[in-house]
Amino acid sequence: MRIGLMGGTFNPVHLAHLHIAEEARLACDLDRVVFIPAGDPPHKPLAGEVPFARRSRMVELAIGGNPFFELSLIEGERTGKSYSIDTITAFRERFPQDDFFFIIGSDSFLEIGLWHRFREIFASCNLIVVERPGKRISDPVAALPVAIRAEFSYTSGARRLDHNAGTSVRFLTGCPLDISSSEIRALAGSRRSIAHLVPPQVATYITEQGIYDTCR
């Protein structure tokens, strides 16, 4: 099977996350997309210190009813920082017969050279890079960390980088939704409507639980 892996703090999950996942699924013919909330994010502090259980519940509510989306609690089940390479490795070990596609936004891809063991990510699975507002990647080769550029060849017509390990990086463009989790937290903390930014079930859960009241 062709499985998409989409990680993030999901603090909270919002419509742009769902849009990215569906866009990647259709463009790359994925059988399903697995949403993976971060347990202990390594790159920046978790705003509001929202517990893993609540962030996971929001994802569960957001993807409910979509047969192509599922939730994994793998990063909440282990201790230490939630490094992407460890998660990718765990999936490959559990499901060696599947092909994995790590889905990230173009904003994250532009910083991937700062990630833990980033070289191994490219060799371990395929990547799908989805355009985010204001972060268009016009030159995929130049966007790669300098240390690994020689490991790739580029097919311009397909907007695809091929790694010498047999994996690839595909770049998707389209109509990115300009939504940010920080904006949602601020609106929710001010008791303003977030109905246009998150699925209705998630909006209700945030309001009922007062998840972002401390952001006021």
What secondary-structure arrangement, pairings included, does this model have?
Elements: E1 2-8, H1 15-27, E2 32-37, H2 52-63, E3 69-71, H3 84-94, E4 99-105, H4 106-109, H5 118-124, E5 126-130, H6 140-143, E6 152-155, E7 160-163, E8 168-172, H7 181-189, H8 200-209
Outline, from the CA principal axes? Answer: globular
State mean pLDDT (0 to 100 scale).
94
Strand neighbour order, sheet with most strands: 3-2-1-4-5-8-7-6
Helix content: 25-40%
Largest sheet: 8 strands, mixed
CATH fold naming: Rossmann fold
Q: What separation lies between the terminal Cα atoms?
A: 44 Å
Structural classification: alpha/beta
Give the second-level CATH assignment, the architecture. Answer: 3-Layer(aba) Sandwich
CATH homologous superfamily? HUPs
- Helices, by number, come to 8
Which parts are unreliable, with pLDDT below 50 for 5 consecutive residues or more?
Answer: none
- Summarize the helix and strand pattern as letters: EHEHEHEHHEHEEEHH
The domain tally reads 1
Tell me the Rg in angstroms: 17 Å
Classified by CATH, the class is Alpha Beta
Strand segment tally: 8
Chain oligomer state: single chain
